[in-house]
Amino acid sequence: MCGIFAYQGKRTDVANLILTGLKSLEYRGYDSWGILIKKEDKSFFLKRQVGKIKDKKLPPIIAKEGFGHTRWATHGGVLEKNTHPHFDSQKKIFAVHNGIIENFNELRQELTKKGHIFNSETDTEVLPHLAEELSKKTNNRLKIIKEIIKKIKGLNAIILYFLNESEFYAFKNSSPIVLGKNNDGVFLASDASALASYTNKVYFLNDEEIIMIKEKNIYLFDKYGKPKKINFINLNYKVEDTLLGQHKHFMIKEINEQPKIISTILETQQQNIKKATKLIRNSYGSYLIGCGSAYYACLVGTYFFSKIAKRHINAAVASEFSYLVDFLKETSLVIPLSQSGETIDVISSVKKAKEKKAKVLALTNVLGSTLYRMSDEKLLLLAGPEKCVLATKSFTAKLTFLYLLAHILNGTFNKGKKNLKKAVKEVEKIINERKKIKKLASFLKEKKHIFILGRGVSYPVALESTLKIKESSYIHAEGFPAGELKHGVIALIEKETPVIVYNPQDETYEDTLSSAYEVSARGAYVIGISSKNSPVYNQFFQIENCSDATTIPNVVFAQLLGYYLTLARGFDPDKPRNLAKSVTVK
Ligand code: AGP
To answer: How many CB atoms lie within 10 A of CB 317?
Structure first.
């Protein structure tokens, strides 16, 4: 949640450089944004604004250093006074922050007793005041930072800036900070994709490390203040991957990228997946965990493993898994799925699993992310930077890896490959025929409720489909195992209630068709997604059968429906209200 960006170097257009950096981090939070730069005359320019950055431009102030923040509000309303950067009473120390300082109230009361006046409702504002209070005792700023780290509680990523001394200090506990460097200068950002336009030479800061930037030099310290060597790594981000290009929205750009991504995984990942299956074979009890879309991918994985690999694998919501780890042991395998690799509920569950000596095989999309660095084995999803808050290409990439894992475990890789190649064709067909889905969206746009049914592996597909509709069109959508209908939910069906039915021609076909007839009998408007039409469908979308890989084109149908429903209702598909791309606070 929240994006932070800082720069110190030779460039003088720092105001707009930081604004561009914040824009590329805006998917982490877009309630308000703020920027501070130090002008050549040693004074500062501070701008804080509620709302999205959009096409804002800043005055061309000559400056060579500064930082900024884009906010996802946790403490204090969406108001200018709660927008970062926050500052001390002398406006000499400034702070930007991502995370939650859990003991901010106690610290605030202590500081208030010492005469500090707070202007905001945020937890963050205690940081510059704490630094100000500590600098009354020492002007050793590294010592002040170490003291602050000891005093604050919670999962945080923080940059403190001492204006007079032109010094930046960055430190973190779990939430991400990336350091970047090029010939012009030094960068700090919440994730590496925000640095792609400037450098691919990065260092992922670890917990209990402190970075100091002064006069374009970088100093890394451990928690005792002892200097450490910085081991930069080179990331192969292509800038255009992080930009919209000719697309209107990142959502449709990323939906269109799926055929190529799935084909690349198919052509390049057999050996990596094979290696990962060894961990699964040697484990005694394996658990897929994730949040939101990632959890629904885990559920799809349980069907793939059962049907294809004849192997039981559990799935759990990562935020609940922390309460379920007592049975884990060194022979257990935890498989966390996370696009960002920073979702705090996944990170903390994996930490607990590691305390139980369980092995960890991560499926993540971000090289160098916290999850990537803390896992024993990792499979990179190769979906490229995903900027739209709604997971699309990362979801189908997860399904592709899980599908191939199951087939390799079963020794039927080529069969899996054949089905996935067919699925890629179906995805291309749906994308090319998206006008039909756009028409369905304008038909459904005024509906209050949409229900989605599926049996077997189509049940978690129904759940993910509801999320793609709910997240950005804000229409209430609910997914059910079709077999559950008569146990209660059919009571929600009335005349013209839209019901989407996933009905691939597999072992669930006949039973699901009966369910379609049952809701139709109650007046539902039935939209059938299948390879075979039926008179019960009021509307029919043909998706050819690709065995269990049919889950992938089925999900792409829902991604496009979610996209066009959002546009039809006049909302932003990339930055839905109240959401952020990577959930780094509990
Ligand atoms: C999906 O569209 C949402 N953005 C959300 O549910 C997401 O899947 C969830 O927050 C998990 O994110 P992760 O894959 O980065 O861990």
So the answer is: 17
Which pLDDT score is estimated for 105?
97
Catalytic center residues: 2, 581
Looking at residue 242, what is its pLDDT?
85
Give CA–CA dist 84/27, Å, rounded. Answer: 17
Question: How far apart are alpha carbons 376 and 189 in whole angstroms?
Answer: 26
Pocket of ligand 1 (CB under 6 A): 291-294, 338-340, 343, 346, 389-391, 467, 471, 582-583
What is the residue whose two structure tokens read 């005041």? 129
% of the chain surpassing 90 pLDDT? 95
Given this model, what pLDDT does residue 236 score?
A: 76
Atom of ligand 1 nearest to the CA of 467: 2
Closest-lying ligand 1 atom to the alpha carbon of residue 581:
4
The predicted model scores a pTM of: 0.94
Asked if the bond preceding 176 is cis, omega within 30° of 0, the reply is: no
Task: Give pLDDT, residue 55.
Answer: 80
At a CB cut-off of 8 Å and minimum separation 6, what does 218 contact?
179, 181, 186, 211, 212, 230
What torsion do the CA atoms of 2, 6, 11, 13 make, to the nearest 10 degrees? 40
Confidence (pLDDT) at 56: 85
Residues 129-137: contacts with CB within 8 Å, 24+ apart?
129/88, 129/89, 131/88, 131/93, 131/95, 131/160, 131/162, 132/88, 132/89, 132/90, 132/92, 132/93, 135/93
pLDDT for 306 equals 98
Q: What is the SS3 assignment for 374?
A: helix
Residue type, 469: I
Residue 237: what pLDDT?
73
Q: Report CA(583)–ligand 1 centroid distance (Å).
A: 8
Q: Using 50, 70 and 90 to split pLDDT, how confident is the model at 271?
A: very high
The rounded distance, in Å, linking the Cα atoms of 551 and 545 is 10
Picking from 459, 456, 421, 444, the residue whose alpha carbon sits closest to that of residue 553 is 421
pLDDT tens for each residue of 487-546: 999 999 999 999 999 999 999 999 999 999 999 999 999 999 999 999 999 999 999 999
Q: Measured in angstroms, how far is the CA atom of residue 64 from the centroid of ligand 1?
A: 36
The mean of the pLDDT values for the chain is: 96
Residue of 321, 339, 566 to test ligand 1 pocket, by largest number of atoms within 8 Å of CB: 339
Residue 391 Cα to ligand 1 midpoint, Å, equals 6
Cα(573) to ligand 1 centroid in Å equals: 15
Please determine, for residue 428, whether its predicted confidence score (pLDDT) is greater than 80.
yes
Q: Which atom of ligand 1 is nearest to the CA of 471?
A: 2
Residue 329 has pLDDT above 90, yes or no: yes
* C-alpha Rg value of the chain to the nearest Å: 25
